[in-house]
Design brief:
alpha+beta, about 450 residues
Length: about 450
Amino acid sequence: MNIMGRITTAMSVFMGIRPNFKNNFRSGILDHRKGFWAVSGQKSAAILAMVMFLISAMGMAQTVDYVAPDYDVYLQNGNPQNFEVLRVQQTGPNRDIFFMFDLATIQSQGTITEMELQLTVYDDSGFGEVKVYKGTGTNWNESTLSNTNKPTTASTPLWTFTGNHALDDLKTANIPTSAIEGDLLVLVIKQTSGNDVGFAANAPEVSGNTYTLAPLSKRPKLKVTYNPNSSNVAVTGVSVNPTGLNLDIGNTGQLTESVAPNNATNQTVSWASSDTAVATVDTAGLVTAVAAGTATITVTTQDGGQTAQATVTVTDPNTPPTTGGFWTQTGSDISYTTGHVGIGVAPRQGEMLAVAGNIIAERVKVELQNQWPDYVFKDGYQLPTLEAVQQHIEENGHLIDMPSAAEIEADGIDLGEMNRLLMEKVEELTLYLLQQDQELKALESKISTLEKE
């Protein structure tokens, strides 16, 4: 992907998941209950699935450090309480905490081997035994949980927290994978001795238009380790680079294969030459020129028999220089220094080479006479406002300083100048992004200050 493509992709991801703080916490992108990295709904699932896909390709045990619960709520005297703090209490008003985690995305990518529940003491310290149980029953949510449909628990806890529970203490519990039912993990937290304790929740506490939300680092989460699925990935194609070699007798050249997809299980290939009297090739794709002529080198995949070819042209460097017409030949080199060249078209005055048709090259180097646009990042550069950019587009149909479609049609494209202009726009786009990032951080700081108040 070229640099413009990368910037565009980055912009799409950035704009796609950026929180909209003007929305309500319960209906906006930033959701207190569902999602990975506090991003809700389909965006959460898409991000988690993408991360799972990328790390599963590594073929080793992987860890997802933050899986937020789909539901977290505590039951007080049979009534669900969905606030900033999850409370657990043995006596007085009896309070038990309930979590539900959806692990479908991770389980689709591999086998879960370890899980660790992480809770942070928040708002209300305490002491005594707090136990974690496996819950059975999923016919509930944060609004409908009651004594009638609440999950049942086994007699033996999965984990026990004991002693004092001071504010900001991080409590961790190893949860066995046997506690998972289908794709869901339900956990119940009970206190069996001591006084009540509060833990940070995913939910905000709402009072009128005021929202109080626990910091993301303190909210309940599950740390999950899994072994990625291992399956055979079939070869679908192969390519060779370069697709042509020009060699003098006795010289060598390297051909390199690329098997598709790049994570194919069997990437073994073989090499062959159509004429070993002209050129030979070894098992690693190294070509040796033998005699003047042309040979075709073919690479073949062991899986699926996919093929790709490269043409090798061998010349004799001892061939004496010859002169024919305007061209001078020395070995495999030819030169022309007396005029202009036209291929498929008459030569054009002022142009050394004119071609009516396509040109294939592995590399084109353009030496610019104009200044490369590092000046965009220097002090004093007048970055157009987005309003000015929008107005220019509406009036002219293209970006500022860029040629119009009519100009391109009439005069063609100067590759060097066009790349300079594109880089200028990329660097301007980077400045816009940095400005937006600063504005976002300032907004987040204001919100954090409001939350603390």
